[in-house]
Design brief:
Strand order of the largest sheet: 1-2
Radius of gyration: 15 Å
Number of strands: 4
Order of helices and strands: HEEHHEEH
Number of helices: 4
Largest sheet: 2 strands, antiparallel
Number of domains: 1
Length: 122
Amino acid sequence: MNSKQFLLWGGSILVLLAVAGWTFLGEGGVGGDFFWLDGAENWAHLVLGVVAIAAVYLLGEDMQKWLVYLVGAAGVLVALWGFFVGADLYGAHLETSDNVLHLVVGVWALWAAWNTKKAMMM
């Protein structure tokens, strides 16, 4: 997986997560309080997902790579914030499951940006 594929897959997942958050979950959690999606998180997922998908078509390969490095660094930093500083980040309540997910996505993004293989035709 490279930066372009990360943006396409990650952006699609974020848009679907936002739609699921509004459609199926309302403002509620999956498995009780294990994974909670509130309105602010749904909007963040939607905007970030649309930006990621747009970047696939609007940015060149080098800019895509730097965007994915930025996403990776942000994911890791948000995870560390949640683990070590506190659960609230600008109104979004981050549970342990959120922190683990942000860490996984951050590492995935850094790996994808570092990977220089060309994307297969989709």
